[in-house]
UniProtKB/TrEMBL annotation:
Location of the protein in the cell: Cytoplasm, Cytoskeleton
SUPFAM superfamilies per record: P-loop containing nucleoside triphosphate hydrolases (SSF52540)
Natural source organism: Haemonchus contortus
Source organism phylogeny: Eukaryota, Metazoa, Ecdysozoa, Nematoda, Chromadorea
Protein name (database record): Kinesin motor domain-containing protein
Region: Disordered, residue numbers: 460-489, 572-612, 766-796, 835-863
Sequence ranges assigned to domain Kinesin motor in this UniProt record: 20-369
Ranges annotated as biased composition (Low complexity): 477-488, 767-778
Amino acid sequence: MDASVSSSMASSRGGDVPSTVQVALRIRPQGNREKLEGSRVCTSVIPGEPQVTIGTDRSFTYDHVFDQATQQVEIYDSCIEKLVNGLFDGFNATVLAYGQTGSGKTYTMGTAFDTGAISEHEVGVIPRALAHVFRRVSDLKQEAREGGILEPTFEVSVQFIELYNEEIIDLLANDRSSSFNIRIHEDARGEIYLHGVTTRQVQDLHSTLEILKNGALNRTVAATNMNEQSSRSHAIFSLHIKQQRVVPQESEPVISQEIEMELLSAKFHFVDLAGSERLKRTGATGDRAKEGISINCGLLALGNVISALGGANGKVSHVPYRDSKLTRLLQDSLGGNSRTLMVACVSPSDSDFVETLNTLKYANRAKNIKNKVVANQDKSSKLIGELRGRIAALEAELLEFKQGRRTVGSDGVESVNDQYHENVMLTAEINQLRFRVKALQETNEILRNRNVDLMAKDLGPNGCSVSSPTDEHGGSSDEANSSASNDAVMDPVQATVRKYLEELERMRSQLYESQAVANQLRKEMNKWKNQALGCGGFMESNDNSFTSFSHQQLIEDARADIERLRRTVSTASNEVTSDYASHADTAEEDGTSNDADELDEEDEYDQDVDEDTVFDEDQKGAALRDNLADLQTEINIKERLIAELERSDRHLAEVRLSYEKKLTELSAQIKKMEAERDRVVMEAEAKKSDKASQEQAKRIREEYERKLADMRNEFRKLQMVEREHKRMQARQERERQELMRYQAELKELKRVKVDLMKKIKEEMKKAQQQQSSASKKLAALDKEARRRDNIIRQLENKDRQREQFMKRTTEEINRLRKAQKEQAKQTRLAATPKMTPMRSTPYRPARTPGVRGQPPPEATYSPKQAKMKWTFIEKKISRLVTQKQTVGKMEEELGRLLEERTRLNEEIKNLEHRFISLADVSEREAVADQIDGCQQKIRYVMDQITETQTAITDMDGGKDGDMENNDESTELSNIEGLIEHCSNLIEAKYLMQHLFNACLEHAVAAAKADSHNKESEARIQQLEQQSFINEQLLSTVIADKNLKIQQDMRNGSFFTRVYRKVLSIFPRQNIV
């Protein structure tokens, strides 16, 4: 067995194998509610490519991407099946389902047992994996029985837990109170296990599915606005397999060999994470809100772990596994000993655009995580496997020594044996000789076919020879004279072609040999099939075109001439070719050599070439490769010449056919005219001899006149048709001009429409700007009203901050004085002759006692560098905050637009119902106009939604690009790197102090803004109450006034008061 194979097997069984986390993306189909709301699909998948595009131009690439129409079985066969097969080799596995609430995670995992009966194609990952496991167990036992070895033994157990509000709950326990005793532990190998969890031993698929179903029904679920069956906890279903089997033999089994057993163990975690959710969208309150907060906290901790493990710089520092129980439970799956697959489930609707984008970014970071996968086997089995691999490597090395490939000298140094090189050279020579034999056989076959062709060609149309003037085949002198007379009548073009044919015929044998050798060399030189032009032409035409020598054979010979040019590269080949050419010319001048002599000469030539070229093939190969480009250029020129020859051949054939056709037509006309002449002469003679034939002449004249009249009628019809055709052309021209005019008008209308749409958008923007300006004015007035109160509160806060700062400064001064006194005391006790000044190492004794066993920092503290780092951190934080605020505003705007689209869809539905119920045509038209207006508004809103989504992706993409394309050093790549790579403790304390001060300032500002918000809310509530009271008072006053007016109108006094009021305003004369 090969040493590389055995070593790879040993490493895969015993050593660490790096394995990145695989990420699969699944896009669920749109729901009925989303379709009714008018949500559009914002994701697109390239067929056959693992890439998804969200929005217009933001793309993500994963290991697997499944579109909306993907079935459960396709996901399992593509991603999960190989993980299940790895269980039986001792490799751990994890499938992690992540996504927003309602994205199909529980459906994909297959734990939704509370929805009734499930069809076969809807069965999820976990039931399919369980069926695969038990089927694989049966197959392994059957294979062992058929192979005559001891059957392996399996022990399969399952666990099912959920993480609800950071509490681990055993879903298989009969008493839920026992879940309080569950603890998370870590063994000596660093693997995580649970103490106090119920473990069920299973034997078959049916009982396992029952356990899975009972646990799934015990899981905590609740209804929200986004999902009627929302999982409120993280669920983990664990499958543990222990097997004891016979060690597979890597070589032929030996009867006397003892049977070795190995013990393998593996576990498979199926993790169904609860969906990330926003309380505003889910509408959760009370316990549901607490559950959502707990779920988001766990997913945030999981995201921090993924970010730490999949950093852009590839360095893993501290991984916060202990921030959450979820990350602690998944410690083996993320960065540990496990083959992990993350299934990211997303929604295709644009109403979930932000959640889908966050999920895609979350999954994209997980691709960079690398796990260290190692087979789980006991130490004795592992040692035996390593020794077995070492033995296989040594056996392979020993086999090389036996074959003579390696030798060991007297000094113990290994070297390669010369005999091995000689064997390699002889093998290459044998292969070359085989190629030569094959080439000679092909040449012999071509020459035999050529002889048959020449024998058939020598016989002309009447037994006359057209190939040579000799009477080699028994031709008489008359035949020779006939051939000479035929040659005399040939036109110049045919004579030129014949001369070229005779010239190429002399080179024919050389060309065949060169073409055969070229074919073999092409196969040997990287199989350049595209260069095999000449050989293919000859081999394909042997069966059909050797009956007569035509222009097609001339073209094929020219193609073979191209291949002859290849052989001119090598000097030896030039000499051999020139010798053979002279030999062939001599044989042609003799004219009496037969086919057997030609074949003998070819054999002798081939033997000479074999002796001269077999041992020089290696040197010639390099020269051939160097001159291949020059040959290709010359070949292209020859190909163009061949194309010109083919075109001239076709032109000559066409000219010949045209002249033959004209001659035939002229001959027929002459014969017809002669016959007409004879007939007329005979009729004239008959008229002279017989006067009684005048009636017949009259009848003939009438017949001719009738024919002439018919021809004139036909001519007039043709003229009418021509005039009609001209009229049709004129009308078609008018229609074409009219069509062009319509197209121009349509183009102008489209342009006007675009301008109108732009004006509408501008007007709407102006209205929005006016509205925003009015809102700003109101806010400014409100702000001015609160300004005085804010100034007082700010002064009070500054006083408190000043007091706190003075207190901290006093404490720090006292601590430093105490440290200085201790240092002076230690210096006096030491009483050394050389004393270091106090200012050379400030604060060092106060900073180093906490660090034991570590050398002092080598670099000195630089205030300028520390200040530069803090400036970078401050700018980085400010930029990130600005981007976060911008994205938040865009997300709010996107939510507002989605709500506006939903409102417009509802309005359109109401208008459609109203349109159906109305019977009046005018009212129906008015409603139709309203529907059209709403549809235009929806289109505008959809455009705004698309623009907002594109802006969000662009903003997020710019942020990622900034992180990836940063040109700073590794220690300046992020804030954590800056703090971790500080030169000394003084610099780290400087940065931490500034970070603490910045956090304190932001906390104070946040508290101040929170208090302002609370005051504003209280004031708004008070104003609303006051406005409500005023409205009630106003309505009461209006009601009383109306009642009084009605009473006055009943008494008649109302009109009297009105009349008096009018007279008081206008004099009587003006009224008249």
